[in-house]
Specification:
single chain, 208 residues, alpha/beta, Nucleotidyltransferase, domain 5, 6 helices, 5 strands, 14% strand, globular, disordered C terminus, RNase_HII/HIII_dom
């Protein structure tokens, strides 16, 4: 049984009646620095939470409030960082999927079905899966995974901010903000930047 965020039962496939459904999602795919982070989670069938939603729609305060609730009430969960060196080797899409797979590896209960936020995924072992556009705002397990991925990644970025405070990763979390790009212009790249990404917009010069 799959539960939408309004707690209305919704069957993805009429012939599936599964308890151990895992939702998985990632955070940080569009960042210039830091890892891409994914989480996978299996929630109990009776799990309910009136606050839980897509992590992007929640304030930082609400995400931090939800994190221990999700971790305590989940049947099991896993979180994985894939770091810039690997992202540069295999590209961000493959790194995102790898982070999801490794997070599923960490589950102590074997999932019977996987629901994935977005439209791209690679088969995980022989477990059936379904990709769901904007799944993190439709299904509780994906929303819970999105909150864990976001909070764990934010904590990592705040940690490395102390090493390179001039990029202000504590605030921008590695995303391509104007402030972040100005710091790259001034100080260059660090070991935490993704070298395969376009760090600065192309500067075009037109003859007058």
């Amino acid at each position: 049984m799959y539960y939408q965020l309004d707690n209305t039962p919704f069957m993805l496939k009429s012939y599936y009646k599964l308890i151990n459904e895992t939702g998985t999602d990632e955070a940080g795919r569009g960042c210039l620095a830091g890892p891409v982070t994914a989480a996978a989670i299996i929630l109990p069938e009776n799990f309910k939470n009136d606050i839980l939603n897509d992590s992007k729609l929640l304030s930082e305060k609400k995400r931090e409030l939800l994190k221990p609730i999700i971790e305590e009430q989940a049947i099991c969960y896993g979180v994985t960082h894939i770091y810039p060196k690997k992202i540069d080797e295999i590209n961000i899409l493959n790194a995102s999927i790898l982070a999801m797979h490794k997070s599923i590896d960490k589950l102590t209960t074997k999932p019977e079905f996987i629901i994935v936020d977005g439209n791209r995924f690679k088969p995980y072992k022989k477990i059936k899966h379904e990709c769901i556009i904007k799944g993190d705002s439709k299904f509780l397990s994906i929303a819970a995974a999105s909150v864990l991925a976001k909070t764990y990644r934010d904590a990592y970025m705040e940690k490395i901010h102390k090493e390179f405070p001039m990029y202000n990763w504590k605030k921008n979390k590695g995303y391509p903000t104007k402030e972040h790009r100005e710091a790259i212009r001034e100080f260059g790249l660090t070991k935490y930047h993704r070298k395969s990404f376009k760090q600065l917009p192309e500067q075009l010069k037109f003859p007058l």
